[in-house]
Fold:
Amino acid sequence: MRYLPLSDTDRSEMLARIGVKTVDELFADVPKSLLLKEPVDLPRRKGELEVERILSRMAARNISASSVPFFIGAGAYKHHVPATVDHLIQRSEFLTSYTPYQPEIAQGTLQYLFEFQTQVAALTGMDVANASMYDGSTGTGEAVLMAHRVTKRRKAVLSGGLHPHYAEVVRTLSDMASDSVVTMQPDVSGSEDILSQIDDTTSCVVVQSPDVFGNVRDLKPIAEKAHKHGALLIAVFTEAVSLGLVASPGSQGADIVVGEGQSIGNALNFGGPYVGLFATQSKFIRQMPGRLCGETVDADGNRGFVLTLSTREQHIRRDKATSNICTNSGLCALAFTIHMTLLGETGLKRLARVNHANAIKLADQLAGVKGVEVLNRTFFNEFTVKLAKPAAEVVERLAEKGVLAGVPVSRLLPGAGLDDLLLVASTEMNTDDDRAALVAALKEVL
Amino acid sequence: MLNRQGRPSAPQAHGVSDPAAGMGDQAARLQGDANRITDSTAGSHPTFTGNKALAQIEPLLFEIGRYDTTGVDIDEPEDFEPRLGGLERKEPIGLPGLSEPETMRHYVRLSQMNYGIDTGLFPLGSCTMKHNARLNERMARLPGFSDVHPLQPVSTVQGALELMNELGRYLVTLTNMTAVALSPKAGAHGELCGMMAIKAAIEARGEGKTRNVVLVPDSAHGTNPATAALIGFVVKPVPAREDGWVHVEDVKERLGPDVAAIMLTNPNTCGLFEPQVAEIAKAIHDAGAYFYCDGANFNAIVGKAKPGDLGVDAMHINLHKTFSTPHGGGGPGSGPVVLSERLAPYAPVPFVRAGKDGFELVEQASDAEEKPFGRMTAFHGQMGMYVRALSYMLSHGSDGMKQASEDAVLNANYIRAGLSDLMSLPFGDKPCMHEVLFDDAWLKDTGVTTLDVAKAMIDEGYHPMTMYFPLVVHGAMLIEPTESESKSSLDLFIATLRDLAMAAKNGDRERFTGAPYHAPRRRLDETRAARNPVLKWTPPAPVAEAAE
Structure:
């Protein structure tokens, strides 16, 4: 077995040194009746070539985003990731290291986390950011719990523009913790009256912008109303690139900003692993979930970095911890920070402009197709169209024609009476040919 | 202001408004310090740059980046009228960039300050730092897995669903359980998923109000009590006895109609298999409660015993431990949960189902015949980790996985045998599982602590073991070599620890208390970091002000 260095001779010598005759004597505490006599009923070991054949065959049964005109978004976006990113994150010292519990030999991880935290704070317009969450949805769940700790209230109000999966994650967590959640009706036009839902018992309002239907939301009035009632505004985003062009949530009064960072540096990966971004104001640091990296000095007075404020965390506080989180999304955070370093302010803003411009072109072209109505007044790189036929059926027909057109709203919100709506995203990946293919295919199907 | 590498210590603004205002004196001082690495062992041969051959100093990105630099070539779009409703960003962001060669060098230099499994022995107990095969990386990057969107039409991702289904089959078979929830994103998230399933089952029985206590042994990972408390359970401790085991009588004593579950780690965090696990499971079930098993230490028993045979109702499996998906400096992980027949109906969405026209993905509770308790995460979980884990399992096969468990246990016991005369075993010199636990009794009167030993190990070229965990043992040192180590590697490791032990006992305190001497940094001041948290870079004050 290529992964196991011990030879049979080694094993015999080692057993003799330990003073036992067989390895099963080391398993003496396992009740005899429960120790398996036969190998588990699964295939025997395989060489590298054979494993490659099996997995490549499975992979070949999927249509990859780069191989077709591709317009799917709704919380995960197809962007170009520079080759440098994937090379660097596969460096052994990054890939095969652990959570930096021994900071003297983990300064590489700690310094990039410090840089990551600085970038995320700048991007979101907030004072501080943590060293990442699992993803945007679980980060949103944690943000709500944090708001409950800060306000000592237990009611969250979720916007109808919040990604339905995110809303479901929050509701699952809240139901289990016996906290209450008010979920607004799906808000296709971005015009819901969320202000009227905020009162003196509200812990937080959770608003996504651009929202799941693509609308760019003005967060300022919501922040004002929330603050008037002692509640927090949790601003959510699922498309990090939008922050290159849209006013930051921090500048609009958000108290906690949480979002999905996949768009920068990370592949689609069929939904994971991704990287949750989480930022807040300095005054709430000690209520934050997740790992935090901080600056300090070593015994010689040299600057260095360590994990800090761990008295919030489970391994110290156990059942009194701010969160049960242990792992973060280290390597995906590294991919994010490398890609962001490559982009810089200049590159990020340009990338955002290209995305917005491409989406505008697509919206204008689709608006000219009979049976298609573009619903958004505002959007960044994704918008909602109303189709003359059920969107799920149209998407299936277009897939047969080799075009992956978007996400039917009914897949995210079944039974909401929104079966004719389709979410369409356009990034820098899309060419004029891609748009023409979508338009042509839609004309045939509708 | 130039540092000693001739680089500016803050990004050049180049026409962008200068964000360099407002940095305090103290930060500015640190700034200066950062570029001067002192080293007591090389004092007689200082270098101009502060570098020491391959040991390079690397400033922060914010000290070398520039606001007008980008390492990505993208063409400006043609003019367009924005449709952002007047919500355009007006202020600068504050994100410096680097060209591609500079980016490469920055991160390569950072990487050289890190210790990984590929660097050397990484015996971090309870973390299972085994070899990360690059075949698994290659497989996860096949476009058919890495470049597919979670919300593509199901007809276009049949191979991805097949992979999830196959991974699930392997996990269920290895554990003899009924179902698996793949979506949890890490071990603690898996714990949360399992405990939610238990809560849902209890509520379905109408006992949601009355059964709210979860028993957690003192030796448990901190995530266990944190998870239980997160969803409103009251945590009650169960002591571990002097033999390191949880005894069924101690569990029975605490059982009653208010107990919802026990969260038991097996093999436990003392490196021991719980011999009374079946009796404990029976007692728990007789009392109407559920058995949650923390599967962090599954690596000891894969192919040797099945948790389902032990009476487990739910167990998370850390794919990043047992099935070798890379730890990546702290994630991403993946924590699928296997469930017994009693809990299977409550598994969260989404899950894969084999239909007559191929695989189906059940994404909505309303589409399930079962009673899913909800959703743990957006989309379907850590697909990239599923691919790597299945690649590991296919490579090892049933025979290789059994051999890996046996080798992991053999290696840990070999270390125990090699050190038991010099270091102290809190529960006596008896066989351990895949990790061996020492306490600090052997350091009595030496003036050397567990932390000091850990730091001295760094100087010897090793990553330290897990220290001060589990909490039930004083000054704990938990050593998990994994099956990836050769005999000669273990021999050198044992010899090194023997040398350290002798040095400590012979009064060579300095070797320990000042360690590490040879790492990229000397011992770091964690108290200072916590007292005055500096969690991001802030621009230095203008030179004139800082000088005053």
Confidence is low (pLDDT under 50) at residues 1-8, 13-36 of chain B. Residues 154-392 of chain B form a domain with the Aspartate Aminotransferase; domain 2 fold (CATH 3.40.640.10). Chain B touches chain A through 215 residues (CB under 8 Å). The radius of gyration of chain B is 27 Å.
